[in-house]
Amino acid sequence: MRIVLVGPPGAGKGTQAKFLTENLSIPHISTGDLFRANISQGTDLGKQAKAYMDAGDLVPDEVTIGMAEDRMDAPDAADGFLLDGFPRNVGQAEALDAYLAAHGLKLDGVLDLEVPEDEVVRRIAGRRVCRKDSSHVFHVEHKKPKAEGVCDECGGELYQRADDAEDKVRNRLDVYHRETEPIIDYYKRQNLVVTISALGPVAEVTQRAMDALRREAA
């Protein structure tokens, strides 16, 4: 299957991508991973991206598109993939359509994870990360540490990252609504969008997603 995963920040795209790709035996292709891999490997596209990022500029669409196309050309993506974070806007969606058409391929579905805006803010603004080990993540409501402000795992100080502050989260949501949400309408015109609620336990959301994708592919 070839799937595009969309949803606002805090919808759980990374978590769902992990379980969906395991269930479907396809690679997870995320924009963040593409950038990290290309920059660390020193590819031409990575060097271009790093130059823009070091200057504080946005990486142009053509660089991101080039990275995504190179990754989709990899042997492990021959039978399908799940795209996460790409396409980010309608221009990138059009480029993806052109790439697929040139290779005689098509998307099987666009999975839209739906979460109320206030829930997104609660999820992200409530996160607390350990200063000693950033993989230790807690939440003021859903995963409270035994002692307030102290990591259960290593005793490090828990803090709220600057970009998790409520005003920053709402700004990220504004960017999502302005830049990325229009691709949902773009794909709706192709009858590719399946929207599911991303509320509830992770396993239930994964099952909901799998059921929706099977119906779409049928």
Automatic annotation (TrEMBL):
Residues 127-163 form the Adenylate kinase active site lid domain. The keyword Coiled coil does not apply. Its EC number is 2.7.4.3. Belongs to the adenylate kinase family. Pathway: Purine metabolism; AMP biosynthesis via salvage pathway; AMP from ADP: step 1/1. Pfam families: ADK, ADK_lid. AMP binds at T31, R36, D57, L58, V59, G85, F86, P87, R88, Q92, R161, R172. Keywords: ATP-binding, Cytoplasm, Kinase, Nucleotide biosynthesis, Nucleotide-binding, Transferase. It comes from the Bacteria. It is found in: Cytoplasm. It is an enzyme of class 2 (transferase). Residues 30-59 are annotated as: NMP. NCBIfam families: adk (TIGR01351), PRK00279.1-2 (NF001380), PRK00279.1-3 (NF001381), PRK14527.1 (NF011100). The keyword Flavoprotein does not apply. This is Adenylate kinase. It comes from Actinacidiphila epipremni. Consists of three domains, a large central CORE domain and two small peripheral domains, NMPbind and LID, which undergo movements during catalysis. The LID domain closes over the site of phosphoryl transfer upon ATP binding. Assembling and dissambling the active center during each catalytic cycle provides an effective means to prevent ATP hydrolysis.
